[in-house]
Write a structure and sequence with these properties.
3 helices, 27% helix
Amino acid sequence: MSVERHNPAELSPPTGFSHAVTATGSRLVFLAGQTALDGAGRVVGETLPEQFETALGNLLTALKAAGGTPADLARVTVYATDVADYRDRAPELGRIWRRLAGRDYPAMAVVGAVRLWDEQALVELDGFAVLE
């Protein structure tokens, strides 16, 4: 699989994402939305960073089960119930991302959501990856 990240100088410098990603490979992996659910189906964590870490870990667990790694991620969408809180905590969330997924950033977007499937959930991540 080949992934190439494109960050043109004409655009604002990306922080924690890539403006565009081209990927070639033979398998697409579509990742369902993941929240901070534990193995018993309960939302864990009271704060956005706690829930973000669990949700990202769940997304990466699903990706690993499909044979992928964080570097294979081409696109991730983050749904947050409080975008202002997400922006305020972006440095901490970025540290969590780098610790779990590294610095090979996919194309990303953060979308505000009134609420998520589980009422206690503050954040959900979905995406897709390209594998060989």
